[in-house]
Design a protein that fits this description.
The protein has helices spanning about 30-40, 55-70, 85-95, 110-120, 165; strands at about 1-10, 50-55, 75-80, 105-110, 135-140, 155-160. By secondary structure, it is of the alpha/beta class. The longest helix has 15 residues, at about 30-40.
């Protein structure tokens, strides 16, 4: 069994605050929420060992704030392909995680992440049943022994933490 944590970036500035969407920064609330998610991930066993993150400013900042809380610093793989990714692309990126990794974290954007959770848990990526507001963490247990076995329907939701729970 593998563990996968899926985190939508924390609350960002409005789209008109930056010249391009990719450069939107976190709000003060977003910064606090990201740190609170870091505190939750800090206590998970096994610890996060591998991170796949979008390099968009709001995801990069979310990832760095989460990592600042963790005792054990995981390897971080910044993946441009996560930005505006389809769930199929996200699944493909996850399949490349080294087999020795027991707990991975992916940090990115909607709608791809919502559809990823739906697909892993229900086998139906096109019909999300879970809403991932900003700074929402979904933690899944995957019925796989190596990451290249990841497929739709192999996961079960173990934990869902929303920003309302954080406050």
């Amino acid at each position: 069994m593998k563990q996968l944590s899926i985190l939508r970036h924390a609350k960002a500035e409005s789209p008109d605050s930056a010249a391009v969407d990719f450069e939107r920064k976190l709000t003060e609330r977003g910064q606090h929420d990201a740190q609170r998610i870091g505190k939750i991930l800090k206590h998970m066993k096994p610890p996060v060992e591998w991170v796949l993150s979008s390099p968009a400013d709001r995801a990069l900042e979310t990832t760095n704030l989460v990592l600042s809380i963790l005792d054990e610093k995981p390897y971080v793989n910044w993946q441009q392909g996560i930005y505006e990714a389809s769930p199929g692309t996200l699944l493909h990126l996850l399949s490349g995680i080294p087999d020795g990794i027991e707990h991975a974290l992916i940090v990115g954007h909607n709608p791809g992440l919502e559809e990823l959770v739906a697909g892993l848990c229900n086998g139906a990526a096109a019909h999300p049943t879970i809403t991932l507001a900003t700074a929402t963490l979904a933690h899944l247990e995957l019925d796989i022994f190596s990451w290249d076995q990841i497929r739709w329907g192999c996961g079960s939701l173990q934990l869902l933490v929303t920003p309302k729970v954080l406050r």
